[in-house]
Each structure stands twice: as C-alpha cells, then as structure tokens.
Write a structure and sequence with these properties.
The structure holds 2 protein chains of 2 kinds.
Chain A: E1 4-6, H1 17-20, H2 23-31, H3 35-44, E2 61-71, E3 88-100, E4 104-117, E5 120-125, E6 131-135, E7 141-156, E8 159-169, E9 173-186, E10 191-204, E11 218-234, E12 237-250, E13 265-279, E14 284-295, E15 300-312, E16 316-327, E17 356-368, E18 372-384, E19 401-412
Antiparallel strand pairs in A: 2-3, 2-19, 3-4, 4-7, 5-6, 7-8, 8-9, 9-10, 10-11, 11-12, 12-13, 13-14, 14-15, 15-16, 16-17, 17-18, 18-19
Helix pairs in contact in A: 2-3
Chain B: E1 5-10, H1 14-35, H2 43-49, E2 57-58, H3 61-76, H4 86-91, H5 102-109, E3 118-120, E4 123-125, H6 138-152, E5 157-162, E6 165-169, E7 178-183, E8 191-197, E9 201-206, E10 211-214, E11 217-220, E12 236-241, H7 244-256, H8 259-269, E13 273-276, E14 282-284
Antiparallel strand pairs in B: 1-5, 2-4, 3-4, 5-6, 6-9, 7-8, 9-12, 10-11, 12-13, 13-14
Helix pairs in contact in B: 1-6, 6-7, 7-8
Classes of the chains: A mainly beta, B alpha+beta.
Chain lengths: 413, 291
C-alpha cells in the first residue's frame, strides 16, 4: 500500500524575502479551518530558534560599485556663450560588512567621487526675451569628494539598534555626521517599528572666494528624525509607511551662483509609503512606492515609482523601473536673476527650486552566483517643465537630463 | 536526543558542508543539554529541582517561549497536552508491564496541572513535586531551529531528521519535494505512508515506541493527564505543518483525543496527515491509497 500526500507550495523567491517571514503563519491561515492551529503557530513562531527576528550576518561581504552620472550638454539656444558641458561624475563605492561576535556586525563604507563639467552660474534674458543660462567657469569645474564612514549594528531577540559616524571632504566642503537608529519587531515579527536620528555639521569654503566675491567660510547644520512602520500583510505582501522630519540651519545658499540668497532655516517633512507584492505564478514581485515632500521654502513634491522584480531561474533577476516626479517652485524662485533686488531679498534661479516634472526609466540586471553577486543598472532621467503636475509660472532653462550607469559586485566569504 | 538523528544538506564544498554541519550538530547538542529530562546537568533538571521553592527559578527567554508554547498547547487541547504530566509516566512502568493502583494515580494527579505553575517575565515558580517534560515540543523545536540556522548559514537545500521529526530547508536541489516515509506501528520496516514536503516540517506520535499488553489490553505510553490512564485513541499519527513544532503539537494532541474526535479534528485542521486507528486502518487527507 502506498499513500502519499503533499504540501506543495512554491518556495518564495529572493525578492519576496521581507514577506517570507509571514509565509509560515499564513500558509496555515490559508489551508486551515482550525483557529487552534493558528494559535499554535503563534507561539511556535515566537520561539527564539525559529523566530525570524533580525540576525547578524554570518559572513563577511565586500562590495564595490562603480557609477557614472552624466548630464546631457545644454544647447547653444539655452547657453548663448561659454561652456555647454554639464556635470560628469564618476563614483567609486566600497563597503565591507563583517560579523563581530554573535550579536554584532560592523560596516565600513568608503566613497570616492570625481566630478567635472560646469554648473549654472547665472541666468539672464536672451535676445528673444526668453531666459538663458550661463554655465560657470571657462574650463568647467573639477573636484573630488572622499567619504569614510563606520558603523555597527547590535542585534537583540526582537530587533536591533545601530550607530554610525562619517566624514566627507571636497575642495570646498567638509561634513561630519553621525546617526543612531533602532528597530523592534512585534506581533510575531509581522510588524516592525523603526526610528532614528541623524545630525550633520557642514563647512563650506568656496574656491576663488576673493576673486569672485564669494562667501569665504560658512557652515550649516542638519538634524533629522524618522519613524517607520512595516507591516507584513500576508504571505505575499507587505506595506511600509515612514515619516521623516529634517531641520536645517545656517548657510543654505549656493555660493557659486552670482546671485543666490536663501533663508537660513529650512524645515522639511517627507512621508514615504511602499507596497510590495510577490506573484507566485509569475515568480516576480511588484514594488510600488509613493513619497510626499514639503518644505518651508514652498516646495511640495510627489514621487511615484513602480518596479517589477522578475526572477529568471534561481540566479538571475531583471528589474524594469519607472518613476514620475513633480514639484512646485520655491516661493523665491526666479528664472531670470534680478541683480537690482536688494541682497536682503531671497532669490534663486537654481533649476532645482523651479516647478517641473521628471520621468525616468531604467532597469537592473542581477546575477547571484552564491558567494558572488553582480548588479548592472542603467537609468535615463528627463526633467521638463511640461511634465509638471503643478502650474509653472516661470519655467527654468537649466533643467537636467542625465544617464546613470552602474556596475556593482559583491563577494561574501 | 536518544534517537536516530540525520541531517542532509547541500553546500558548495565538502569543507563548507562540514563546517556548517558541525554548527548544526552543536545546536542539537545545545538543546539536548539544556532540555533533556534524563541528564542531571540539564537546565530542565535544574528547573525541576526548583519545585516547591518559594522564590522560584530564573528562566531565560528561550525557556519562557517554550512555556508560552506549552501553555498554548494546554489551552488548545483543553488540558490534554500537559508538559507537567511527567509524574504520571513515572508510576506507569512500561518496562515491567505494571498497572499502577488507582490510589497511586490519584496521588500523581495532584502533582500535575499546567494551570498551577506561574511565570512572570524571567521567574518561574513550580509547585512542590511538580515536574516539567518538554517531550513533544523540544525535539520538534530543535529540528526547526537547526533548519533555521542552516538557512542562515546559506544552505538552500537540506533535510533535518531528529528521530522522525523532520524539518526541511527548501526543496531538494532538483526542486523535487522531500519524501518522508512514515513507519507503521507494528513493523520496523514497513512504511505506512509517505508525505512529500517542500517546506515546513513533519512530526509523528504513536504508541509503537513504548506500550505493553496486559490481559489482552494494549496500554499506550501516551497518558491522558485528565484520567491518569493511557489513551485508547489512534495508534499513530503523522502531521505536516508550517513548522515541525506545530506538527508535533498537533500530532501529540491528536493521539490524546478520542479516536473519532481526533479524526475529525485532524480533518478540520486542514493539515496534511496520516493516521493508523485502533483497527489498524490507515487514513488521512490527500492520500492515494493503493493496496
């Protein structure tokens, strides 16, 4: 006599891992008419050897990522004279994450950026009455940024807490920062509450300050707090909502623009939401994110993005992604610099303070070979005042279009 | 753990596998050393020695969680699955096929009852003469814990078998489910049924391990704490669930219930299961019986 019975259920793929924590309970909920079994699962899942609480890494991982960010050149109709080349930035990122004892991990991050090109210097009216932009420097700017940060995370039975400190330096900029954060799991790890605080103290000392009558040495401070709630809804879906609040004070203007006067205080608030759902039949996960932002410069923005994480076998994944962004203008934005304005009046022609919309699309290819993992990402970004969801009274001439390409390699040992 | 244990795993290299295996066996050994009722140096023995102490004993988070689960089992089974029923098995002598007197049973029963113990945070108070036995929970928990540890150590395919309690780590490397055979109570060799596992665990409970026959009547080692007498329900049951720990608790409860009640209860649970009843008929859900 042969009797067989099966509990077939496809294993959840890597993309759905945050959701997999719920798999065990809801498999029961789905299959079972008996509330007793659900009750039994709740205490069994809380046992420390089973509970899917955070666990420190058991292996060390070294990662390297090279990214290139290239802004499109402006056209002669937008820039009547001088440089057309905008920023070209290469970024090298190194990271080491290693376990330390049973309950701790440490990480060291080092970044190196080299930047060349030119940025908008001032705006005026062109011969046809439309605003035109002038880019800085006859031969553009060349700068390097180096950053080092170290951090540690301590893991508890039902959560973890972490701290980090860092230092970043450029020719004309220096920042020292630290952060503290923690998270705790509730409700058999189906609910996670996290919160944190970070602080940064920055010094700005522009190059050629005397030559161009720029500020010599200024500083700014930023403090930020956040709180987030993550809820695993069922076997295949989860939701996260986060609120952050940032206060900046000090020199918040752009010292390289001919006329840029901004308030010395800025309060920012951001509300981010993300929903993830794994589709068993497709072996893929859908990620949908939405973020609302507002600051007291007068800028409000909405960001929505959607990505599809398609597993291809056990080792490959392709992730197409689409994003839409739109913001309103800062109260003091002008698309033509007014040099007759008294210096006490706020004004800026920085395109990042104008009302505009942006669309971007891209994809990632991920190959996971066990101890090796490689990620290739390509993105195209287009900002345009015509894409704006907000009314645009003064379109900026200097909105960016860029390509971003990155290749990352992780090795675990 | 006093029974046959086997861990199968697939790793990238033999050295990796050996390293992982040694960590996994260490975890089994840790839990055995901590919760064995038969070791004089186990923490469980220390807990049992504290019975009657007014100040109680400090217990760690893991033991608290096990007690939480035991309480859940006690309440779910309406008192049938009771980890404090150890005193009963001491008066039922299966080796010498002795039936205790009703007076002995009555006396033993005064020392059991999960509702009599209390623990607040990290302090447990055990009434005098009361003993705890995590049988039916700890071996299953160890199987789940080892499987979880293996997953954390990067193992994607493996099977943990601690004396017939199984916990799987993913499917087999070729994506086939693990096929676990269930031995029939009366035969050392005969396979009563097969249950395929792709995830979770499988646990069995039955009277084939220890029982005796007295004046033609079969006395199972599974004792009903409410009557103090051996159960006369199912002969054996195997259950598959999201966790081996859950499967083990369900299987133990099914053995403690009356036969007809147990069959319906297993059916209502929605979990894949196989049982052999007192007439030695094999039944369960999702089976393709070919005799």
């Amino acid at each position: 006599m042969t009797i067989s019975s099966s509990v077939k259920k496809p294993p959840l793929a890597a993309t759905a891992q945050p959701v997999a924590a719920a798999a065990a309970t809801s498999a029961i909920v789905k299959n079972s008419a008996s509330a007793n079994i659900i009750a039994l699962s709740s205490t069994a899942l809380a046992l420390p050897g089973i509970a899917l609480a955070d666990a420190p890494p058991t292996q060390s991982t070294v990662s390297y990522k090279l990214s290139n960010y290239q802004e499109d050149d402006l056209s002669r109709s937008e820039v009547p004279s001088g440089e057309l080349n905008r920023y070209d930035i290469d970024v090298h990122q190194f990271q080491l994450v290693a376990p330390m004892g049973r309950n701790m991990s440490v990480h060291v991050d080092a970044n190196y950026e080299s930047l060349s090109g030119a940025s908008p210097w001032f705006t005026t009216l062109g011969l046809d009455g439309k605003p035109v932009v002038n880019l800085s420097g006859a031969s553009g700017i060349s700068d390097n940024r180096s950053e080092l940060s170290v951090g540690t995370r301590y893991y508890l039975d039902n959560g973890s807490f972490a701290g980090n400190i860092g230092y970043s330096e450029e020719n004309d900029y220096r920042a020292v920062y630290f952060g503290l954060n923690g998270e705790r799991h509730y409700n058999n790890d189906l609910t996670t509450l996290a919160g944190g605080f970070s602080y940064s103290s920055d010094d700005i000392f522009p190059t050629d300050a005397a030559l161009f009558n720029r500020v010599r040495d200024e500083d700014k401070q930023s403090s930020s707090v956040f709180v987030s709630l993550t809820q695993i809804i069922n076997q295949v879906s989860s939701f996260q909502s986060a609120l952050s609040f940032t206060e900046q004070s000090g020199f918040l203007s752009d010292p390289y623009k001919l006329r840029d006067v901004r308030p010395e205080d800025k309060t920012q608030i951001a509300w981010s939401n993300s929903y993830r759902r794994f589709f068993v039949a497709a072996n893929a996960a859908l990620h949908v994110n939405y973020r609302f932002y507002h600051d007291d410069f007068g800028i409000s923005s909405h960001t929505s993005d959607v990505s599809w994480h398609q597993n291809l076998g056990r080792q490959f994944q392709i992730v197409p992604q689409l994003r839409y962004y739109s913001q309103s203008a800062a109260d003091f934005f002008t698309n033509v610099d007014d040099f007759l304005n008294p210096l006490s009046e706020y004004q800026s022609s920085d395109y990042r303070l104008s009302a505009f919309g942006a669309v971007s699309g891209g994809f990632s290819l991920i190959a996971d070979m066990g101890s090796w993992k490689a990620t290739l990402t390509a993105e195209r970004y287009l900002a345009n005042d015509k894409y704006s969801a907000y009314a645009v009274s003064q379109p900026s001439t200097a909105l960016v279009k860029y390509n971003r390409l990155s290749l990352g390699v992780d090795f675990s040992f | 753990m006093g029974s046959f244990c086997e861990i199968q795993l697939f790793a990238e290299s033999r050295i990796d596998a050996k390293k992982i295996l040694s960590q996994l066996t260490e975890e089994v050994a840790r839990l055995e050393k901590k919760y064995s009722r038969f070791r004089s140096d186990s923490f469980l023995t220390e807990i049992n020695r504290s019975a009657g102490l007014k100040r109680g004993i400090d217990i760690d988070n893991e033991t608290q969680s096990l007690l939480d689960h035991a309480k859940n089992c006690y309440e779910t089974s309406e008192g049938l699955f009771d980890v404090t029923a150890a005193a009963l098995s001491q008066i039922w002598d299966f080796k010498n096929a002795q039936i205790p007197t009703q007076a002995q049973i009555d006396a033993a029963q005064t020392t059991l009852g999960f509702h009599k113990i209390s623990w607040a945070d990290s302090r447990l108070r055990l009434p005098p003469d009361m003993q705890i036995d995590f049988g039916g929970i700890v071996k299953e928990y160890a199987a789940d814990s080892v499987a979880r540890l293996a997953r954390n150590l990067g193992v994607n395919h493996g099977l943990v078998n601690l004396g017939g309690d199984f916990s799987v780590i993913g499917a087999q490397p070729d994506n086939r489910p693990w096929s676990t055979g269930i031995i029939a109570p009366d035969s050392e060799q005969g396979i009563m049924a097969k249950i395929d596992l792709l995830q979770g665990g499988l646990a069995s409970s039955g009277d084939y391990e220890r029982f005796f026959v007295h004046e033609g009547k079969r006395y199972s080692h599974i004792l009903n704490p409410i009557t103090g007498w051996p159960c006369a329900g199912l002969r054996a049951v195997s259950v598959a669930a999201n966790l081996c720990t859950v499967a083990g608790s369900v299987a133990t409860m099914a053995m403690l219930k009356d036969e007809s009640v147990a069959k319906q209860w297993l059916l209502d649970s929605g979990l894949p299961h196989v049982y052999m009843d007192s007439r030695e008929t094999v039944g369960g859900t999702g089976m393709n019986a070919t005799s």
